Structures are given as structure tokens and as C-alpha cells.
Amino acid sequence: MSSPLDGHDADFVVVVNEEQQYSRWSAPVAVPSGWTIAHGSAANDGSPCYARDSRTDMRPVSA
């Protein structure tokens, strides 16, 4: 079984939750409950940079 995150030519979005934690998410897959899109569809190389540059402290804001 292949994962939708495995494709090197796939488009991704950056999602963020209420704790200001960012994650890369496959654009064709529905965003899970509790997460919203923070950065639109980007090539595989672009979205990790946005997530890395947007928040450098990976701890939840409630911590």
C-alpha cells in the first residue's frame, strides 16, 4: 500500500492546529479535523520550508 505522502511530484499544503504546530499534508487528501491550511499548495520542496520558517519552537503553545 502506498502513502499519499510518498509521491515526489505531489502537491502539498502546510497545515496548522490550535497549538501552532505545523505539518506538511498531501493537497489531494482532506485536511483532518482541528487543522487548517496555513500555506497553499506547493511543490514537494516548497512546503517544508514554509513550515520550518513559520515556527521554530515545535512545542505546543499550551506547554
TrEMBL record:
Region called Disordered, residue ranges: 42-63
**Any one GO cellular component localisation term in the record:** cytosol
Matching SMART domains: MbtH
Q: GO biological process annotations for this chain's record?
A: siderophore biosynthetic process
Specify residue ranges for compositional bias: Basic and acidic residues.
52-63
A Pfam family found in this protein is MbtH
Q: What is this protein called?
A: MbtH protein
- Protein species of origin: Amycolatopsis cihanbeyliensis
Lineage, uppermost ranks: Bacteria, Bacillati, Actinomycetota, Actinomycetes, Pseudonocardiales
